[in-house]
Specification:
Blueprint (H helix, E strand, L loop, with lengths): L9 E5 L5 E2 L3 H13 L6 H10 L5 H8 L4 H20 L4 E2 L3 H10 L3 E5 L4 H11 L7 E3 L12 H9 L8 E5 L2 H10 L3 E5 L6 H7 L3 E3 L5 H5 L8
Parallel strand pairs: 1-4, 1-6, 4-5, 6-7, 7-8
Antiparallel strand pairs: 2-3
Helix pairs in contact: 1-2, 1-4, 3-4, 4-6, 8-9
Organism: Salinispora tropica (strain ATCC BAA-916 / DSM 44818 / JCM 13857 / NBRC 105044 / CNB-440)
Protein name: HAD-superfamily hydrolase, subfamily IA, variant 3
GO molecular function, one term: phosphoglycolate phosphatase activity
């Protein structure tokens, strides 16, 4: 089945908190990373607030901010974070959001292109995809280093559009659980910029960032993008 002109031709999905359950794994990994690096300079409480506020953004960019622009310190912290997160994933603490895999499969069957995007590095993203058996689930997976900049910049969305041959940003839908996901979608010009309540930010935060729709879960996108035909009376 081909997608009619004027409807969504590409959906860009966030990963952690949107299609992949987070359940505090990012914060756990960050705390473990601080323990490994042994930083006495970073205020942990303030750092955790910043990590929560910037969920969805490129992790190395977050660590550069926390390290006060010290690139070597940022890379040490980022490396420790990635190792800690991968240990948690390998321990089986990584699970899909209910309905996410089924939705992506249905969209592809309907001719809609799909991309999984994340603020993690390629190594961490691949660890998650392998743990879930999702290496071939979407048409494309992207991390910030492959697109230029991470969220809230529009680069991940626009790179997906270019690589998947979609010719108009008005045929793009984005979905994520954070304000930075929403900002990236709005800046990219996507027609539908959906926020979901399964991750870091609440409905008010998502609406304030400019979400066109706030959904309980990513699975609720199906009613927007793949409406069932109403039989004629």
């Amino acid at each position: 089945m081909n997608v009619p002109v004027g409807t969504t031709r590409l959906v860009c999905f966030d990963m952690a908190g949107t299609t992949v359950a987070d359940d505090g794994l990012v914060e756990q990994a960050f705390t473990r990373a601080l323990d490994e690096v042994g930083s006495t300079v970073i205020d942990r409480e303030a750092a955790l607030r910043h990590v929560r506020d910037t969920m969805g953004e490129s992790k190395i960019a977050v660590f550069r901010h926390l390290s006060g622009g010290d690139e070597a310190a940022a890379r040490r912290l980022n490396g420790a974070f990635e190792r800690a997160y991968e240990v948690l994933v390998d321990a089986g603490l990584c699970a899909p959001i209910d309905g996410a895999e089924q939705l992506i499969t249905k969209l592809r069957a309907a001719g809609v292109r799909t991309a999984l995007t994340t603020g993690f590095s390629r190594a961490t993203a691949d660890r998650i995809l392998s743990a879930l058996g999702w290496r071939d689930l979407a048409d494309l997976t992207l991390v910030p280093a492959e697109a230029g900049r991470g969220r809230p910049y529009p680069d991940l969305v626009l790179t997906a559009l270019l690589r998947l041959g979609v010719d108009d940003v008005r045929h793009v839908t984005t979905v994520g659980d954070t304000a930075s996901d929403v900002l990236a979608g709005r800046r990219a010009g996507a027609a539908i910029v959906a926020g979901v309540l399964t991750g870091a930010h609440d409905a008010a935060t998502l609406r304030d960032a400019g979400a066109t729709h706030v959904l309980h879960s990513v699975s609720d996108l199906e009613t927007l993008l793949l409406p069932t035909d109403t039989p004629e009376e």
